[in-house]
Amino acid sequence: MQGGLFECKFGRISVTATFVLYVSLTGVITAQSTSAKEPPAAIVHVDATPAHAINSFDPDIALGSSIDVLSHDDIDKVFTPHIIQESLSAGWGPITYRNNSELRMAAWHWTENGTWSDPAHKSGYFTGSTDLKEPLRYILSYALPHRGFSTSGDRPLQGPNLSYWKSNPYLTSKFTGESDALHPQWAIVDLKTEKPVNAIRIAWASPYARTYQVEYWVGKRALDFDEGPQGEWKTFSSGAIANAQGGTVNLKLADAPILTEYVRVLMTESSNTCDLHGADDVRNCVGYAIQEIHVGTVDSSGAFAEIEKTLGDKPTTYCTSSIDPWHSAADAYATGGYQHTGFDLFFTSGLTNNLPAMIPVTMLYGTPDDASAQIAYIEKRGYRIGYIEMGEEPDGKHAMPEDYAALYIQWAAALHKVDPKLKLGGPIFEGVNQDIRVWPDAQGRVSWMGRFVDYLKTHGRLSDLAFVSFEHYPFEPCTITWRSLYSEPQLMKHILQVWRNDGVPKDVPLMVTENHLAAELTGPMTTIFAALWLADNVGSFFEGGGAAFHHSPIQPQGIQNSCLGWASWSNFVADESYDIKGYTSPYFAAHMINLEWVQHRSGVHYMFPSSTDVRDTEGNALVTSYAVHRPDGNWSIMLVNRDETNPHNVRVQFEDSRNKQPAPFFGPATLVTFGSQQYVWINDGPNSHADPDDPPVATSLVAGPNTLFTLPKASITVLRGRVAGLKD
Description:
It is built from 12 helices and 44 strands.
């Protein structure tokens, strides 16, 4: 036995550990030569045949993190040298900037320097200025007065007028160049439970619908695009209206009331009369506007009785197809609250890691002129843009794929006038595990992605789609158990295949641009569970053909209570002042991925098929493996032991179809592990923390044909070294 010292440094943590050849720290990890008396070890098979590589990626493009909305004060706290250094110490490379304003159904001003379409009233459609004035530190969000009664989306920002809705003018023939009937706009009354309906009262504003129909839903989940609607829209027997004249109308839709949960007003022809903002701007005079909608019944005398709007904890809500981005200076949110980081601060702070960043342009609630001005400003400053995401979660806003595609084409044309080399993409889907399905079109197609791709293709604009992005939040926060770990690789690989099956071309990269266990805080986010899940998440993403992966978020966040215990979204245990008290398991998992498994700042890595035969009695894989050949010539295998209670011994075999015999790691090698022996989360209310909270442990060894590796229970292990008989 030979020994020595090995020093690991992670962020603010430093640990010195004894390493040995063949046998390492007792109870942590072992690598030893087997004897005839020992039981056979499980085999890790790696297909190292060069022609069998299943993916390739550069970590400086493909492994990153994200930054989201922050308050004014939080921006000042996060963008300090210490917090930036700590945030980057997790090892992630590039960063993606999330557009939470658009997520909340709001406009944003990436700069307050600019012009209004109605300057006299400081209102209308705002276009930021490309003038290089004072550096931009904060970005304000603006409520949308024309959102009206729309409540679809993720907690929309409240505006001053919740009874007036107007559709997006950029979805009309004036801007799309095609018939308005190809982009029907709609408003849906969601009654939350089936109620008898045979009448509707609509108070139209201008522009109003000249042709429309009132429909009811037969079935379930009309607005559930994640699970898929079950049913169909049917027009009330007297619900088809032509040559309408606006104003307030009371319509008897059928002789007898029909039980339904959803009522839809589908608009296909506009009056093109101007709204109260006047005729000087054509955007005021296209689309559709409704002041109020009421559904109910009429009796034999013709008296209208509205359905009760509030039913306990399930109030009636309204969902609309789009929203006019008109707003005014008075609609800005308070400077102390809901904000984003200004682009000058973002790019100069160091948070981009000196790598090109992925940034958003607002599209659902913006204008192409403002988006192109934003990019022109960033390029004028000399900041590096990697990719541009177009809009934010259109599926969560119930936008139809054809509508999103029509906006995408307009924005792409404006942006490529600024810079033809820009790489644009989307649709930035919410985290889903299945295909996103919507109401069938005339051809019966229900796939959102399939119809979006087809629209671009039929309009000759598929080349504008440089990448497809989506978010990954695989689990319901309150139902996570240890067994949930077993499903992650299949969930990730499945959704990647879904997008390909929907028609995304093979040469269009697939990117996860926001990622965590669940869309809401949950206790397992800070237990050892999260570390193992993250390693599987990353490995299966690249095994499935993914191109770029971003874990969320990069900055510290405080500890909060959740349905499964106290936890943090972030890599750190921090207080409200962003003072870092410790680290969470995803932080150390990030080290295993970024600093041990792969090698940043080195170039392209090649991934090869690998597998293990360690399973439980139900057939679940207890050990997963992910193998890459690195630019430094080393082979690196990340092994995830998902067995919560038992270690497992493995032997590694590299198989090259050009050779007759499998090859082992041979000569000097490195073994690094992180698991439940280094990290235990203590659930203690606001004082929750990890104890121990230790970094990964590294061991140097000399490997040979009979070397046996022990994977501790609930752990991530990286084996790295050269392989006998294989060329670098």
